[in-house]
Amino acid sequence: MSLYTALIRPLLFRLDEESAHEAAAAALALAGSLPGAQGLLRAAFAHADPSLETTVWGLRFPNPVGLAAGFDKDARLVGALPALGFGFVEVGTVTLEPQPGNPRPRLMRLPEARALLNRMGFNNAGAEAMAARLKGLGARAVPIGVNIGLNKDADPEDAPALYAKAFARLSLFGDYFVVNVSSPNTQGLRLLQDRLKLERILTAVSGYNGDKKPVLVKLAPDLEPEALEKLCVFAAEHASGVILTNTTVDPHLREAALEAGGRRREPRFQGGGLSGAPLRETALERVRAARAAVAGRVPIVGVGGISDAEDAWEMLSAGASLVQVYTALVYEGPGLPGAICRGLARRTVGAGLPRSGTQGPRAAAGGAR
Ligand SMILES: Cc1cc2nc3c(=O)[nH]c(=O)nc-3n(C[C@H](O)[C@H](O)[C@H](O)COP(=O)(O)O)c2cc1C
Fold it and tell me: Looking at the annotation, which residues are catalytic?
C-alpha cells in the first residue's frame, strides 16, 4: 500500500470528485512552480530506463506511458507532470473559445468498479489562453500533445474552420495534435466520426500545418466494427495516427459499473462517458482491430482502463506504440506512471518494448499531414 492509497486518497475521496481534482491539480501546479520541487518529485516517483525510450513521429519519448487528455485541460500542470514519470502529456481538450462546461456535478467516482463517469463538456479557458501558457513554458522534458475539440454552441458545419483556427493558434506550441471527435459530452461531436466530415476537418487543419506536426484522430470505443475499420483505414491515409479510445456510453458496461456500487437509480449518475477498468477489454479490442486496419502505416495510441504494467504491456502488444492513462491515476495516485514504467522495464529486459506497433515512418519524415 502506498502513501497515496493509505493516507492521501482517503482524504481526497472525502471531497467531491471535482474538488479533489482541483486540490490535486493545485498541489501539482505549486510543485511545478517551486525551484527544486520537480527534482524531488522525479526522485520520489519517476522511473527512468533507457530500454523504455521510443521514437514515434520522429519525436523522442523517454517512455511510452502518457497522461490522457482531460486531466490537464488548460496546460497548467505541464511543469510537474513529466516529473511524476510520464513519457508524454496530452493537454486539452481545448476549444477555440473559452467555455464553462456542463453544470456540476459532472464527474462521479465509481470506486467499486475502479471507474469514473464524466460529463464535463470541455470546460476550458480556450485556445488563446493555452497558447500563452505553452509559450511561456520554455524547454519541455517530454513531448506535449494538444487535443482540440469544438465549442458547445458551434455549428458542426463550421467544424473544419473551427478546428483549423484552434490548431493555427496552437500549432507552434504542441509536439503533436489530436482532432477529438469522440467526446460523448458535446452534442453532435461524435457525428464527426465520418469519413467525409473528417476529411474536411483534416484538410482545413493541414492548410495551417506548414511545420508538418503530427495530427491524430481520437475515436470512440462505441463505433460499430465496420465503421471503426473504415475510419482507421482513412486515418492511415489522411492523419498521422489514431488514439483509441475515448470514454464509452455502452449501456451494458455502464449498468454493470453502476450496479457494482448500487448507484443505478441515482440521478447524478445518468449520462456521461465511462472510463477506467470496465473499458479495458473494449479498448484493447479496438486497438487490435485498428492494428489490422492500419497495417503498420501509422502509429496507434492505446488508452482505456490501463492501471498497471501488465495492462500497459498488453496494450503495447495489441498494437499500440504509446499508451495513456487517466482514471487509474485517481485511484492509484502519483506513483502510477513510475510503477508502470518499472514493471515495463522488468518485462523488456533483453527484448525491448513490444514492436507490434509502428513508429510512424511517414510522420517521422515530417508528418503525414
Ligand atoms: C474526467 C475526465 C475528463 C476527460 N476529458 C477528456 C477530454 O477533454 N478530451 C478527451 O479527448 N478525452 C477526455 N477524457 C477521456 C480520457 O482521455 C481517456 O480517453 C479515457 O478516460 C479512457 O482512459 P482511462 O480509462 O485511463 O481513463 C476524459 C476522461 C475523464 C475521466
Answer: 183
Element (H, E) at 327: helix 327-332
Domain ranges of the chain: 3-364
| Residue 362 alpha carbon to ligand 1 centre in Å | 28
Q: Phi and psi of 155, rounded to 5°?
A: -80, 120
Burial class for 365, CB neighbours closer than 10 Å (0-12, 13-18, 19+): exposed
Tens-place pLDDT, residues 170-183: 999 999 999 999 99
Ligand 1 pocket: which residues have CB below 6 Å? 68-70, 73, 92-93, 107, 116, 118, 120, 122, 147, 180, 183, 218, 246-247, 275-276, 279, 303-306, 325-328
In the chain, the amino acid numbered 284 is: L
* Closest C-alpha residue for ligand 1 atom 10: 69
pTM value is 0.96
**Structure confidence by residue, pLDDT tens digits, 40-92:** 999 999 999 999 999 999 999 999 999 999 999 999 999 899 999 999 999 99
Domain 3-364, CATH homologous superfamily name and number = Aldolase class I (3.20.20.70)
Nearest ligand 1 atom to alpha carbon 73? 8
